[in-house]
Structures are given as C-alpha cells and as structure tokens.
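haha ok so turns out i had the wrong file open the whole time. this is the CORRECT one, sorry everyone. sequence first:
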Amino acid sequence: MQRNYKNQLATLGILLILSCASFLGFAQNALNTSLGDFKEVKTNGQQLDITSTNANVQLTVYSPSVFRIRINKNKFNADFSYALVAQPNTCKFTSTSSDNALVLTTDSLKLTITKKPMRFIFSTLDGKIINEDEAAFGTSWISDEITTYKKMQNGERFIGLGEKTGGLDRRGSGYTNWNTDFFGYGTDADPIYVSIPFYIGIHSGLNYGIFMDNSAKSHFNFGASNNRFSSFTAEYGDMNYYFIYRSKVAGIIEDYTWLTGRTPMPSQWSIGFQQCRYSYYPDKEVLNIAHTFREKKIPLDVIYLDIHYMDAYKIFTWHPTRFPEPKKMLDELKSLGIKTTVIVDPGIKVEKGYKSYEDGLKQDIFIKYPDNTNYTGEVWPGWCHFPDFTNPKGREWWGKSFAGYVGDGIEGFWNDMNEPATWGQKFPALVEFDYDGHKSTTMQSRNVFGMQMARSTYEGTKKLMNGKRPFILTRAGYSGIQRYSAVWTGDNSPYDDHMLLGVRLVNSLGLSGVANAGYDVGGFAGDASPALFARWISLGAFSPFFRSHKMINAKESQPWSYGEEVEEIAKNYIQLRYNLMPHLYSSFYESTQTGMPVARSLAIEYPGDAKIYESTYYNQYFFGNGILVAPFSSTVSLGKVYLPQGNWYDFYNDKTFNGNQEMVVETPVNRLPVFVKGGSIITMQSPVQSFKDVPFDTLYIHLYYGANNNSIVYYEDDGDSYAFEKGQFYKRALNYDATKKEFLLDDVQGSHATKFKNVKLIFHGFTALGSAVNVDGVANSLKNESFSFLNPISKFDPIGSAGRKDATDGKTIVFKNKNGKTKVSW
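then structure:
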C-alpha cells in the first residue's frame, strides 16, 4: 500500500506541474501552432486515436517497452516506412483517464498525456521521469515543419545518431540528416553520407531511445544555442517517433534493431582484410598485388576494382583492353583464396547502343521530372539517368543486371556515389520517385536512395549467387541499412584527427544498429605518413569492416608501401585479426540476434561513468565482448588510458590493473594499447592467410580471471552459404562461474561439424591454480606456456624489448572438443 501511495503522489506531482503548462505555453499565432488541448480518444486494440485542438495523434503500444507516437495537423500521410520491419507485439496495458490526463501503463513503462495542453511524459512505474515534452512547446509547427521539443534533464547526455562527427556525448551540438557527398570532410562536418534519426538519452541512471522515422530532411538539436530543450524536426510530413525504454543501453539497441532489422550473418571472407585502390588496373597489376600478398605471407581475403575496370565508367561493363579476360583473372584470384569486389555507381550513361541504357529506357525504370521526362545528371560516365530504387520494378531491374558480374565470379559489390552524388551537388528537389506507390520527390526520397540501392544490390545478387552470401558495401544509407549492407565512412583524409574520428563514427554507427562498419585505413584523400599508416592499420584490425584504400594520384598504400618496419607492423596486426576470427565471427553472430555492435562504445556498458565521455577517453571501445581498444594518434609515444570498473589485463603481457583508474601507457606505433576485462572469454585460432585456409584443429580459449561471472555464445558455420538457416551451424554457450570456480562448455546446438577437434584452455590471472584442474571430474595436468599475440619485431621496437614485453606466461590444458557438456573446475 505504501508503494502505491508513493506512486500516486509521484503521478499527482507530474499532473500538478503540467496542469500549469497552459499558462506557460506560447500563444497560438500564425507563426507557431502547437497541439493545443486534448479533445477525445478512441481505442482500437493497441492503437489509440486522439484528437486535440489542432492535430490528430495516433499512439500505438508496440511492446511493453516501445511506444509509437504519430502526429499530424490534418490527414496522416501514408503509413509506409523503408526502415521499419516490426509489427506491434501483443501486450497488456492499462489506460485510465481523468480530467487532467490520460495514463497508459505497461509492465515496463508509463506514459502520461496531459490534457491542457496536450503533452507527453514518459516515466518509470515508480514515477521517475525518463523523458518529457518541454511544457510550453511540446510538438508544434512552423509552417509545414514539425518539431518535438523535449525538456533536457539534469546531466542528460545524448549518444548515437549514426554517422555524425563530434564527441561521444552530443549535448550542446546540433545535426542535420541529409545524405551528402562530402569529399575530404572535416572532423566537424555535417551532414555527411548516412542519415540515422535515432539517438539514446542517458540521465539519472535511466536510458531511453528515440527513433524519428521520417525520411525527409531532419534536424536534431541537443541543446545547441539554447539551454532549455532538445528537439527533433522534420521539414515536412508526420511527426512519427518511437520511444524506447529499457534498463540497459544494450536493451535499447536490441529494441531499435527489432524495429529496423539486424545485420545478416556476413560471409567470413568479407570480415577478413581487404585491399583497395582508386584504381588497380590493368589485370596484370591486380594479379601482381595479389601474388605479392601471398609471397609476403600477409593475410588477404578481398581485392577491389574501382571505376577504371569499366568501359568509360559505364556500369555492368568491363574495359576491353585493361580487363580483356575478366573471368580468367577472377579465377586466378580465387585460386589464391582472394575474392573480388567491384564498385557499382547508380548513374546509367545516356548513350545509344549501351545495353543498360537502352534496356532501362525500355523498362521505364529511371527517376523523372514532373513532366514525365527522365532526370539527367552528370557524374563519372558523363550525363546519366538514374534508376528509381524506390520502385519495385527498378529494384528488380537493377538486381537482374548483376547476372554478368556474378557469372564471372564476383561476390562483392561496393555501392558508391549513392547519396546520390552528381557534379554540382544540387540534385533537383522536384525530381519524382515512386516510393513504393507513395509518390514523392527528392525531399522525401534522397535519404533513402542509397539504402534502396544497397537493398536492390543485395536482393538481386543474393538471388543470383546460388546460395552464397553476397558482400554489399555502401556509402549512403538510412535507418535499416544494416539489413542489406556494410557501411564505410566515405572519403576520409590521412590525418590523425581523421583516424580517431573514424573510430567514433564506427562506434556511433554501432550504437545506431549498424554492426558492420569501417573506415578507409590510411585515409583516402592523400598521403599518410608511415607512422600514421602503421597506427591506422593496427586500429583497422579491431574494426568490424577492415579495408585499406587510397585515391588516385596518391602514393600506393599496400602494407609494404611504407617501408620494412611498417610492413612488419601491418603483417602482425592483420595476422592478429585472423587469429581472432572465432571471436569476431561469434561477435557478428551476436549482432544478428540482438543488434549488439561489434565495435562497442563504452557507453553501452558504462553509461553512467562520466570519464568515458571526456575527450581524452571517448575514442576507447570494446571489440566484441571483453577486448578494450585504446586508440591514439601516431605522433605520441605516451598516452592516457581510462579503465572503467572491473579488473583488467594488458592484452599482450597479462600485466594486471584495477579499474576506475586513469593511467599513462606507452604507445609506440608497433603496439596499439589493448586490454582485456577480467572474466572475459576470448576465442582464437591458429594463423591462416585467408578464409580459404583451414586453421589447425585446436580452438584456443583464453579465460581471464575476474570476480564476476560471464557467458558468451561461440558460433561457427560454413562461412559462405545460407545452410545455417536450415540448422547447419555449430553453436554453444561458454560459461565462466567465478563463485563455483568452473568453466563450462555447454551442449552443442546445430548440425554443422566444427573444424576444431581439440580445445586449448589458457588461464590468465588464475594465480591460485595448482598443477592440475579437473575436466569432467578427471584431474588433468596444467602446462606452463609462454606465448605472444604479436610476433616479436625487436629490431624495430623503440623500447628495445618487444619480444619480452609482449610475452604472456599462462597455464594451459588441452582436451577433446566433444559435443556434449564439458566442465573444467579448479
């Protein structure tokens, strides 16, 4: 009874505060129009249709933790979204109405809608305010532009919003969503290539997410130029947002990716190392690059062909003299264990006799002016028409056009220039799109153009590839792009600040549902110094998508292009990534199930820790579960690291550290600072040169002592096909119980046979271990073993002790990898 009384008081307090809002609200005039007062409500299942003085409101309970709010002055637009894949879950909620408010309550969340004026307040069941409308403004219009204003809470932080520059905490900043081709963008540039109108708010131990699903140009303000409110604006159309409340940031990401979809399981070769240049040609140069990687024993899975592989830059063609026998070249690359990815641009050259142009005209799949003539814009091939990827007919035409490439043996497709980019950068606003039957102009369609191009590429090549997984990469996208494509951060520059910005962009994309993302290692737009490339490639090894790329008229940017020392550093870190492939592949599997990113901002696990938002530390992130990466400029030899709560290990030598501390570490370019959290379980394999190679038959499991229990899911499949969808996978939980002093390999699920016959369990930090542990009740002797995660390269080590410095002394045991439970206890 006492708790219910407190809840009633808390609710009454909310109502008393907002009952005064009508006196605080601005007067209605021709310049500003707000919702006005609540008039009536009609309930239809989980949807409530509400009318106010000036608007219609549609409220849908999507799940106990997700509410949708949709607002329009007049008639709602068509209820259609390229981002959304979820339907409302059937769930219980209560609705109570009084003179002052309408209150909706699920088992997770309470929404109070005040009536005079109409405002929205989200709170916990015990009355703590999570998020609330700004009392005076709420949702209002200036002409056709609609904005929702939110009161900023004490100490509130804002993270996410996808591919946006700036720091981890976006408070004090404002951003625009309008996909833009921005060559060599600055570290504070906005907007750039991708628009994801979703952010996470954090304050007072509470976390929430807001996803505004409107593909028109939009603006988000987190207290820029004011200290009163945060806001989000659509230049026209409905105010349509989803409010998510979960106790953990990971839960908010899970709900957001339930709404917008999750990253499909990538092919394993596509998360290996990838080498690109604008451009490698002719075919002899491509093959020379590939053979050099193999001769130098530097792992490589993918090589790219940029626009010079095409005949006069025309898509779906091969240059007749540079690549006279493309299939022969592709077959030779395949024999080396190297896949090929080709660039594909949306512009179809206006040229009589050009097959794609003539067929596009015949099929009538190009975007148009209002007078029904095809829009023509200039890009690499010259004057071009552009397929309407928002038209199912256009998507089908584009997808079928890949038959020649797929028949030649290409399995990767790099979607570029799809903001869309045209010379002059003034794509006309009046160009019309089908928008899947909901006719629109550039104003609504621009932000989804790149996403729908990537979708068309993904769906088309998937149909053509006979059960193999295609790899799709895109520069532009919108919420939900993760369902179709990896994202890279565009035309970056070879500067330390840009390298560190790339880390933050990838981490922010991860917070926003895009698990498979990366940057151009070495910086695309110019020449990197040897030290910068060395540092960048070590960071790239801990990025979900790992590609080195360089523009035309810049120096070559292969691992050996910067001298012997940098070549060794690059080789070390590329090889380390392949050794970590079981950890990485399992992390991607987790992303397919929960939306958890591979590169994980520390704000996911430590949202209330103020230190992680400081500029000294906001680049730090987790690579999967447990591995903390601390990025640094290539110009410093010492740097500060912050280790949050927990116990920690130096990844290279097992030196231990307590959490909640700042410390100075050495940062030579051959040794990226990396740490492991106590309690972590890290899986590894023996060195390979590509996905084609089979590692040794032993799975290495590194177990780090910690006071807290931990569990991960280890995952394998064939790495290339969709057989896993029919149960052909190998999955098992790995559980560490600190209290019981045991490590359990749970029963195997799935019918895929693992490539690892044995398990080597390596104990880190278990100082109290004796000479033996029990495996399923039988005593097994431990071995003392010294090993290193990096090859010693002491002749290049500025400290002069790399071989000793990076050596780890561990206790190990080897046992058979059986399908049933295996318990190791000590």
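The chain is about 20% helix and 30% strand.
again sry for the mixup
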